[in-house]
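Good morning,

Both structures are done.
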Amino acid sequence: MRSLMLLTLAACAPGEGTLELLTWGEESATVDLQTDDGWTITLDHWVTTVSNIELGDEKTEERLARDASAYVLDLTVQTAPLPIGEISAAAKRHTFGFTIAPPTADAEVFDGVEDIAEQMRTEGWAHYASGSATDGSQTIDFEFGLDLGGRSTNCDNGDDGTAGVALEEGSVVPAVVTFHVDHMFWTALGTEEADLEFGTLATLDGGDGFIDNDDLRAVSTIDIGYESAGLVDNLYDFISFSMAQSAHLNGDGLCTVRSL
């Protein structure tokens, strides 16, 4: 059942503004991805959890306001930013941070993915992705549950390049936690300019036309030539690390990410 819980405020207190919290995966989560090596990727599901959204003092980093809820959503069905809540805070500039982690038992689940959310909770997955890819001559199905979550802090604002978010008294300002789902198919870590490929993944199916977590774990990033910057040594950890870095503020606003 699709549900929507808004922490709606009747009115801002004097000297306060409202931050409207939204999230989505942009158009790339809802349309086929075209890779640099000639594959077409179709995502059936991309489920993730956003939680513990916080505003802080830009000088002391003290937490000033927080939405402690967890929200589970399927990015492949969101054709526009999805409202998930609101935070009331002082009319000033704030730092912005959030957590990507496995769903909690009381997480608010959108888009009819309760079964996937329960599997993520049981397995300890921060992201779940399934779909298929074709190069015109073969089709490969995949299903991945990625266990590396992250705490994103001190986010830049992708709308104007400033730090965090600025609230004005009586105003409502949007803050969109934006996921770049194509990160899963990048061939390098530590950059926003990596190639988008699927051909190497296609060789891992063992002849059955299907790739899962075990297939990824069995492959060394050195053997396949992926640039891991020394951070990981197998393809499962590579993709998990890349996805932990995939969430931004208002489009392309980068955050400082600490693994959980």
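Second structure follows.
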Amino acid sequence: MKIAVVILNWNGKKMLEKYLPSVTAYTTGDAEVVIADNGSTDDSIEFLRTHYPTLRIVQMDKNYGFAEGYNRALEQIEADYYVLLNDDVEVTPNWIEPVIAQMESNRLTAICQPKLLMDTQRDTFEYAGAAGGFIDNYGYPFCRGRIFNTLEKDHGQYDDACEIFWASGAAMFVRAQVWKELGGLDGDFFAHMEEIDFCWRAKNMGYNVEYCPQSVVYHLGGGTLPKTNPRKTYLNFRNNLSMLYKNLPLGYRTYVLTIRWVLDWVAALKFLVGGSKAEWSAVFEAHRDFRKAKSQLKIKRAAIEQKKVSCVLPDLLLVKYYLGRNKHFSQLDFKKI
């Protein structure tokens, strides 16, 4: 069995210096580490060739973003399992074996993630994945261990392997066969939400997405775009709308998108009142470009069999969180869409 741990790099020499040693030290046996370089303009490649001369490097001519960058890189890599790993992740001994064992135990398990803890506060769940991703009826993502900006301490409360809605792209294990079957990530997303869309499409095809707590990694996070960034706001709002349009069952799509239109403009107004005109503009541009992309999204939607899927919160998370004060995952209740 061949496993390819693929790190997508873009001007990330500092991250590679800090985090690559753990990856090379604890990735052994049939697992190979590959660096996919997204057209870096720093001296990342020189650093790798000097300090890691045996590592395979897949070089691309420009920055294709997270989604298309991985699509182009994995086209050139043959393996049974792909591990998409951020360049700011420190792995631990035996981080690969339990995930692969869990996936091998059920052929329908196509995607799996380890426990993600913060690199800077190692007893705390990390924002972009924590103990597995979920979503509410209106497309708002959250995690076991993280709801909006509330991060839980890890007390072993999520040490059970379980089905989840989405796995974090920071450390995502994928069966290569399923990756090819789904056509990889949606390259038009560029970055943000692409792994949630990918997992949703896998669920629509009858596959499982799971969480494996026996594997632990530490993620720095925010290495490419800071949390408050108009570009990130634009991508999150546009890609979330695209994901909902593609994957929601027909009878439910119009209702959800109507509610989201209202909620998005409430968020935009909040940005404006708070003095962030750039963030307000980002929401406007996201909705404009979503409308422009409708014809292409219809084609993508036609290739997906939309189903009712598991691990979806039946309520509006905003209400649960702000009015119901449900700050922790354990306070929420689930059912199928």
